[in-house]
Request: fold
Amino acid sequence: MNIYENQSLKAHNTFGIDCQTRYFAKFQSEQDAIELLKRCTSPLLILGGGSNILLTQDFPGTVLKNEIKGIEIIEESDIHTTVKVGGGEVWHDFVLWSIEQGLSGIENLSLIPGSVGAAPMQNIGAYGVEISAVFQRLDAISIVQQEKRVFNNPQCQFGYRSSIFKGDLKGKYVITYVYFRLNKKPNNNTSYGAILSELSKMGVKNPSVQDISTAVINIRERKLPNPRDIGNSGSFFKNPIIPIEKFFEVQKKYPHIVGYTVSDSQKKVAAGWLIEQAGWKGYRKGDAGIHENHALVLVNYGTANGMELMQLSKEVQTSVWNMFGIALEAEVNIISHQM
Reply:
């Protein structure tokens, strides 16, 4: 295991921000991770695909990149298949594998950038599906004690785009393997967003798991920029969940507000709609901007730095608050340690 000094992180974050880290190393096994944790200098940052972070400054400690691979079926029943997946696997590659196996449960999460190990931290979700619905457990290593621990579904405290690893245990564990219980029979969740209309365009009436995945990929490719072409991390903000009374208050002034029922007392509002109404869609200042096709996506057109993008995000938050009285919370993790 080599530990490198003064390494650029440009190739390891999807915004393409050219920050440096004091030390950098990769691990391909749990034992490698334990050994590196014993040797590394704090502060510590664990990287997967780098798709959900915004680096604002050079990092003064150690960045460890999770490259634990492997997809293995470990248990089967008549209706379910349990799969063990290395935290360093690319999420979309795992989705494609599951489809090839004829397994259902994560096809709506096609083309989400990032790694498998980061997925439960964020409780990633799209088109009416979150991974918490198919998540069984995970293996993790304590950063301080270097001891292995298993977290089951309830222990992860999943919420909307959140888990215990973004709360009380943030920065305390390295997720090495994730276990999913997938369905042998398709559950065909097609009611959310534009999936049904996309399937109709495709001429599909009785969709397979592959058809749903293709529909999701088509929609995402039209709406979202590819990080290989334009630096971005997908949706920058969470869709805010607000009291239903607040929703009706805003709806009186803005009848076309886009919202979804969460409970009898709460509504989830489309953050992209709020940002677009506030006039930010397609905005650009230098190389920092808001994507022209999706107001929820902040982009780096080339040489924008993390501070410029963070400042833009704060301006968007202030603008939406002033217009609607609704607070936007960043979904992206903003890394601000300084050398």
